[in-house]
Amino acid sequence: MAVQDNTYIKLTAAGLNMIQQALSIFDSDLRLSVSNRRYQTMFDLPDWLVTPGAAFEDTIRYLVARGEYGTVEEIEEAVRIRVEAARAFVPHYMERERANGRWISVEGAPLPQGGWVTVYTDITEVKLQERLLQAHSEELSSEVLAHAERLAQTNRALAASNAALEQAKRELTEMEARTRLTTEMMPAHIAHIDRTQRYTFSNRRLSSVFPGLPQNIVGLSAQDALGPVYAKIGPWLDRVLAGENMVQEFTHDASGRRIRLALTPDQIGDGPINGIYVMSMDVTEEAQARAALAQTRKRELAAQLSSGLAHDFGNLLTIILGLQGQLARRTDLPEPVQQAIQSTIAAARRGGVLLERIATMSGAREIRAQPTDLAALLDDLQLMARPTLPAEISLDVRRDDMPLMMLDPGMVQDCLLNLILNARDALAPVGGRITVAARRLGETWLELTVSDTGAGFSQDALTHAMDPFFTTKGSAGTGLGLAMVYDQITLSGGTMRLGNVAAGGAEVTLRLPFKPAPLRASPAAGLALLVEDTDTIRETVREMLRDLGHTVIEATSHDEALALLDLPELGLVISDINLGQGASGLDLLRICQTRGLQRLHLMTALPAGDALHAAARAEFPVLSKPFTLHDLRIALEAPA
Length: 640
What we know:
With 640 residues, the chain is an alpha+beta fold. The strands form 5 sheets. It has a 5-stranded antiparallel β-sheet with strand order 2-1-5-4-3. The chain has a 5-stranded antiparallel β-sheet with strand order 7-6-10-9-8, with helices on both faces. It has a 5-stranded mixed β-sheet with strand order 12-14-15-17-16. A hairpin with a 5-residue loop joins strand 16 (495-500) and strand 17 (506-513). 23% of the residues are buried.
């Protein structure tokens, strides 16, 4: 690379030396960067003043002292004036007579990176011709001669101005190209529309923010370019043209994306508004994260408010149940009193169920997304739901083909089953059809709908159905079913919408972020160590591991497992956390780590809130019991 650079410098210098004009380039620090041989010979400069890095001030001092600018009494003052003029450099053209009687033209232009280039042309011959013409043309009026001289000078100045304009044009073109390249790289649509709402600029990313809209829109009106979206945006454009800055968020109905739109008037000071600067960007993931965070904060607040009440209320219910139980065991009470006692006990138990559901809604709930086969999940849902439905109610499940999705399968099944049971109650006792549908909405949402052929939601239900304790079932309902579904879906960054279908019946639409599971190769099966102190569980897990292609060796305790860790080919250790007496499975896996084993997994029936479970989960993957073969496969395939 250095050889190429040196060759380039030599070729450039040779080319500059061939031109008949003198040329010099000084940088922003007023030091010589480039000059040609004609520059040195024209001004008879010593070598040290044509060496790159020579100071402009030294060159001027040398020329002033030598009389280049005529007789100068204060040399340093003359140098200072010319150096200050150079620091405030502006494009210029001038002609002057040198001390040796020759005439030169001086044409200077600034450089974009600072400094300037100056071209010196010997115009002595031109001047001599002008004088000769004047001397031999006495018949020409003095005005004509003066005009000719002025015209010649003007033409030379015009040529210099044209060169400066061409340079400015090139710089402007390069700046525009860089600006367009920069805007086209941004993940947002940036545009400008004029007062007639016609696009005058666009970075051609409209279709990436609004799928289905055109890419090249310059020259189109906003209504033609935006299509159905204009109905939402049009009124905002009118307000911005009236002088209002605006930032709005809205949902693009066709794709389900959440869009943030920033509109700024094109106005300088108090002048007229010439149009609108527009920036729109897809903030769907941000909106999903905001919704999940807001729901988490609501749950934390609800937990704080309800924990104390639930504790005291639970104690009261315990006392009521205890006293009523004592009365219920008496045999000498009249029948009406016995009935009142049983009713009181039933009401107290119902209060206990409500407390449990409130704790479920407000307590900690961790979304455990994992690669999920949606088709298998819906098949399992049908198996669970059909036995709960009477013969006069049918269940129809429809789905699009989809890749493995990152979902919390337990949460999704719970929500759908809750909605199916609600639909069952709405269809009783006449019967009808319940439809569960799953479809992909662009690259943004997985949409799940549960609809029925019943009477549909009342207006009151559409307004309040997701409020806790709202129910249309009277004493038979708790009013927490839909509220719990809303809580879980929102916690996942999704949305829930209630409506009535045109043909009759209710419809609940759940939208969850569309997140395909990352593709990864299944780890190779090999020798696996299974550590479990319960025989029946060990046998079950052993068969699952064999179904996945593993060769299995077994241990029932921490110490027994330690003796097997040095076996060659051992590639997987899966252990229960509790191993009876002695050290735990967590202790075992910590030792496995020190011996270089990498595929380490724990399993447990302990609740997620248990201290040992939480400590284990902080270090190793933990599989909660009970689990299926599919659950085990997903856990073993997950990256460490």
